[in-house]
Design brief:
mainly beta; 19 strands; six-stranded antiparallel sheet; 228 residues; globular; Double-stranded beta-helix
Length: 228
């Protein structure tokens, strides 16, 4: 499989497949394809794993695109302005923890499953619920990023405090917990909410420069509304 990322505002990842190669994505994730691509939709990984995807914010059903001949092309688009980041999971021994909405598509030998947060407080206050996703395997995984991507390699014990909506993914070696912002003035006047996510190394962290949910929330006051 060869791929290239096309575009800068709302990019697509275009893949050229050999016969028999398969790429899967959420239902509705495909942008365009050539002849020679067969699509099959299924509850990838069985019923329980599919239900876990639903709780982590992904589709229950996955669309699988398989090349019937060499050189067949299929492309997948991001849903908001940002970037598409390829990750070679064969270089990450323990896989990658993904936040809700980060998964775009992957090769067939990449598996995703539910990953529960280790701390109750992280699930209760973290903004992503109790359930994240874990991607493992030896193939390529493509992540959807809101805005620009920032990648950090945390040293053992190194701390990074992040707004939860700006986290995309991190290695399982990175601990994940929630801490309260200190000071009443900061809480009520700072505009950052009550909590930050505290990431502690070692391990790789992928961030995004924009939290699209916050961006959409800022547009609401400017949206026309009907008057009774």
């Amino acid at each position: 499989m060869n791929y290239k990322i096309i575009g800068q505002t709302v990019p697509v990842v275009e893949m050229t497949l050999n016969a028999g190669e398969t790429i899967y994505t959420q239902s509705g994730g495909m942008a365009y394809q050539s002849q020679g691509i067969e699509m099959k939709t299924n509850a990838r990984g069985g019923v329980m794993r599919s239900l876990g995807r639903m709780f982590s914010g992904e589709s229950i059903f996955m669309a699988n695109y398989t090349a019937q001949k060499n050189g067949a092309v299929v492309a997948f688009a991001s849903t908001v302005p940002g970037n598409i980041v390829p990750v070679d999971l064969s270089t990450i021994t323990e896989g990658l923890i993904l936040q809700k909405g980060a998964f775009l598509c992957a090769e067939e030998n990449v598996e995703t499953k539910v990953a529960f947060t280790k701390r109750f407080s992280s699930g209760l206050f973290g903004g992503e619920g109790f359930i994240l996703q874990k991607a493992t395997g030896s193939g390529k995984l493509f992540l959807e990023i809101d805005g620009d991507s920032i990648q950090k390699e945390l040293a053992p014990g190194e701390v990074l405090k992040v707004d939860t909506g700006n986290i995309v993914a991190f290695e399982p070696t990175v601990s994940y917990e929630i801490e309260t912002i200190k000071g009443l003035g900061n809480i009520f006047l700072g505009g950052e909410g009550l909590f930050l996510t505290r990431l502690v190394g070692p391990g790789k962290v992928i961030l995004q420069s924009q939290n699209f949910h916050d961006f959409a929330g800022r547009l609401i006051p400017y949206m026309p509304s009907s008057k009774n």
